[in-house]
Amino acid sequence: MWHSLRFRLLAATILVVIVAVSVTALFASRSTASEFYGYLEHGSLMQQRRFVMMLTNAYVQAQTWDGVQPLVEQLGQFTGERAVLADANGKIVGDSGRDLVGKTVNANWSPSSRIVVAGAQVGALYFNPAAKQSPADAGFLAAVNRAVLVGALVAGVAAVLVTLALSHRIVRPVELLTAAARRMETGDLTARVNAASGDEIGELARAFNSMAGGLARLEQLRRNMVSDVAHELRTPLTAIRGYLEAAQDGVVALDATLVDNLYEETMLLNRLVDDLRELALAEAGQLHLERQPVDMGDVAQAALETVCARAEERGLQLSLDEPSTEGAPLVDADPHRIKQVLCNLLNNALDFTPRGGRVTTVVRPDGPWVRVEVRDTGCGIAPEHLPFVFERFYRADKSRTRATGGAGLGLAIVKQLVEAHGGRVWADSAVGAGSVFSFVLPVAVESL
């Protein structure tokens, strides 16, 4: 609990509220007191001038302070404060409270006003001499301080309630995300969270759901991979075992034909293992590339010559379409790896193009890139399969025969090799209208 996000958010808010409210209350209290005392001082100064004038006139008329007690009592009633009048010797001659008359003023008292006649001080006037402030003033300031304190408490409670509501709104989705993540940790890849909000938490939830979907898809691909690899290995291994058992039983002769069949099946195994190793190296970024300025037209021509025999066997036409002027610019690439990319794309096109169809390779400049396209007149790819064709072991046709895509590693290798060169690869297709597999490579510095 003490380390939870909810508690820390609440504690931080309470601390901020306490500091903010305390500073505000202190400032408000001192500012109010300062303004109030300023106002009182100004009003008191005007009153005292009138009182001094009244007392001065009374002294001038009587030439003594005898009989001034009623006037002092009137002053006390008028101001609501205790008024004390002392003569020049410090003897109290008037007291609105009546009990100090005849006594001597306290040495600690500070006179509110001095009464001067003909240049000589004849008396001193005191208001509330024994108190630092009047009861009315003290009551007013106390009421103001109480109001400030109550306001601060109300604001603090409101801030805490708002923080609780806000923390629930923030922390609850995080708790749901944590619970979903723990479910995924146990192997439940179906865990999802509500991503209805449009704030950062909602974005996080959507990213989590997308990640969970990707992991679920990768897990399904992994399972398919295990099944596909097992199938691809089983087929040649079964054939090899069958040939060997037949030879062992004397059903077939151990001649050159049998050896050729065994060699062919062994090469199938070797190609599958090589593809897996190459894909692993490319995904790990450990694939060695011998980059140099390369003419993509020459590489495309070499790739066509490599697959032309297979195309003739399947009754397909191959063609190369290059710019008719000076050709495409050179690219910075490893010619052997890029030829492998083109061979994989061409073989993929040959696999899915019916007899009598056509496969065309196009090489053309595209700004700072050189663009290569492999077009076929095959059956096309359904839209729901198109985003996944470059994933390893993914096949739109789920049947596991070599005639419909083999192990599904060729396009995954294409993607890794093109991206290792700093390029990009994609596919466009429509069912029944054929497919176009395209990739771009950066133009070599010498060609810019």
Write a concise synopsis of the structure shown.
By secondary structure, the protein is α+β, with helices and mostly antiparallel strands. It has helices at 5-62, 69-79, 135-185, 200-249, 256-283, 296-313, 335-351, 410-420, and strands spanning 83-87, 92-95, 113-117, 120-127, 292-294, 317-321, 331-333, 358-366, 369-376, 424-430, 434-442.
Question: Describe it for me?
Answer:
This protein has 448 residues and is an alpha+beta fold. It has three domains: 5-136, PAS domain (Beta-Lactamase), CATH 3.30.450.20; 212-283, Helix Hairpins (Orthogonal Bundle); 292-447, Histidine kinase-like ATPase, C-terminal domain (Heat Shock Protein 90, 2-Layer Sandwich), CATH 3.30.565. It is built from eight helices and eleven strands. Mean pLDDT is 81; it is low at 400-405. Helix content is 54%, strand content 15%. The strands form three sheets. A five-stranded mixed beta sheet has the order 6-8-9-11-10. It has helices at 5-62, 69-79, 135-185, 200-249, 256-283, 296-313, 335-351, 410-420; strands spanning 83-87, 92-95, 113-117, 120-127, 292-294, 317-321, 331-333, 358-366, 369-376, 424-430, 434-442.
